[in-house]
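cron nightly-structures :: item 1 of 1
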Amino acid sequence: MSDADEQEKGLSLVRMAEALVFASSEPVSVKALEERLPEGANIAAVVQELAAHYGARGVQLVKLGEAYAFRTAPDLAFLCAREEESKRKLSRAAQEVLAIIAYHQPVTRAELEEIRGVEPARGTLDLLLETGWVKIRGRRRVPGRPVTYGTTQDFLDHFNLSAIGDLPGMEELKGAGLLSARIPAHFSIAPPSAQADELSDEEEPLEADDLEELGLFTPRDGEK
């Protein structure tokens, strides 16, 4: 294959990746790109070239965890400012719980209470689950098997984070109103011990009975 053919093939792959990301309402994962692009395509090189193409444009290709999406360039974000949906208007308590989950995931309800020093209000976790920023990860491998919570791909997307390790520092959190004086001094801002989509060694996956018990799955008639 000539250099010209190689270049044309590369451009074709970039155009295909561009179409896939542009047409998707959700960030497109690396796995999805691998499945949709021709076998053997160098996904990293394709994405790098596509990102460079949009580098100085009004929209840019951004990495969100292990997925990619087009987003408004940071310096033009003010043009697209809009009021947050009501479900995204979190109370101070919900913001603090969200911050703790983000920095301590995987975390249980009891651990949330211990870290914050105040028991989460009834419905706070339910509200965070409804926003799509928090999910039930699994169960802790300890007596009682308490449920563990963590953040989602939507959380990374909303806060423009490429990975959970890109979370801001303590002062930035305070400035954003995500921490208050009630957070104890031992509150940690170290990177979480687990990735958003991976269970840690301390966790076990949810089983069918767990899903039904937690209201995450309702068996159809005749199923059990």
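cron nightly-structures :: done
Residues 1-5, 83-87, 189-194, 217-224 have pLDDT under 50 and may be disordered.
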